[in-house]
Write a structure and sequence with these properties.
The complex is a heterodimer. Chain A is α/β, with parallel strands linked by helices. Chain A has helices at 4-13, 28-36, 46-58, 70-86, 105-120, 133-147; strands spanning 18-21, 40-42, 63-68, 91-95, 125-127, 151-155. Chain B has helices at residues 11-20, 33-41, 57-67, 79-84, 87-95, 125-132, 143-155, 180-191, and strands spanning 27-29, 47-49, 73-78, 100-106, 109-110, 116-117, 136-140, 160-165. The termini of chain B are far apart. Chain B has a single domain (11-191), classed as Thiamin diphosphate (ThDP)-binding fold, Pyr/PP domains (Rossmann fold, 3-Layer(aba) Sandwich). The chains are: A alpha/beta, B alpha/beta.
Chain lengths: 165, 194
Amino acid sequence: MIESDTFVQALQDIGVDFFTGVPDSILGGIIAELMERRLYTPAVREDEAVAMAAGAYMSGKIPAVLMQNSGLGTSLNTLISLNYIYQQPCILIVSWRGQGGNDAPEHLVMGEVMPQFLDTMKIPHRTLTEKTAIDDLKWVAETFMQKRIPVALNITKGVVKGLHP
Amino acid sequence: MRPEQGTMQSRAMAMAALLELLTDQPVIICNGFPSREAQKIADRPTHFYMIGSMGSAAAIALGVALSKPNKQVIVFDGDGNVLMGMGTLATVGALKPKNFIHVVFDNEVYGTTGNQPTISNVVPLEKVAKAAGYVNVERVREREDLVYEFKDMLKKDGPSMLLVKVNEMVEDAGRVMLDPPDITKRFMQAIRNS
């Protein structure tokens, strides 16, 4: 399991310097670490977080947006009609709730379709694993710089240490 | 505050009066007619014209304001837009960026889609902003009040909201001419060294 502070440090090391989002339990440890480092700006909706990140990007920041995968639905229009068409990249750190069908009912549909959903939205994505973490983050940074569109790093349960181990 | 009747001023007139008072401040302009009108009145590289993602103008501006704390950031918004992204009033009110001025041109309709009514005739958006934590809020109708209050807000610490009652008149302005990626590049370059 990756420690939250190691993960946050790795994001900072690839240049991420603006963090916003809406919490999820899988992301709890990461958000706690970001708050500890006074790096986190809380948003009230995921589409708002994505728009704030766009503003930060245009001001010279490298933004990351943390969200539960349900938030992909909420931010769909912003991702397409702001980020995508205006070529404003951001790093989406998305918790994969409902993966494998083991979760509360509200997570099961998005949990099942999430990879296809991201493909349909033309958002490049990868799922973080402990073994490939260094490569995964390198890929995120390269995709961000080259494609200038949102790029998603999916986080499954238990890969990064949460608040309640 | 005056009674809400006989609003004579058009959004374009109000916008022109405000743009005269601005120089190199970043201005985020919401989608629909406001961006088209602003482009026609005074096209500046510091303008970010939105052509979609309705409801997001204030959130984009908030991202700029937080990243550029020494630069005053202006939003030109509409009542339909604010209602759609009303949660952002809370985020702004809670974070209290001092360099954030939110101008809302309130014509009580969705103008771009054919003047269907919004609900801003019964929901005073500047009061919502005040309750959410905006430091200064004003509601104006006349040009002289608009200019006076906006000048005042430019001098004060925010966040501030200036709600401008305007009529439904639309300036004869074409679509936003620049391609979206060029709007991004131009805006980024214009605010880079500030």
